[in-house]
Amino acid sequence: MQLIVNGEVREAAENLTLGAFLASCSLPSQMVVVERNGEIVARAKYDRTPLKHGDILEIVQMMAGG
Description:
Elements: E1 2-5, E2 8-11, H1 18-24, E3 32-36, E4 39-41, E5 56-61
């Protein structure tokens, strides 16, 4: 299926959850904030949020440092 991630078209496997997608991108779920189709997804729901063809994701990765 196709997703739009941070403005770019990405291919992803069918029947994927948001949590599984983040893992496939090597993004630790505790270090990102995700907006799906204009709504923030609660971190606790990443593994229960199914992705669908055409979903628009904005993923912001938090950075540590000073």
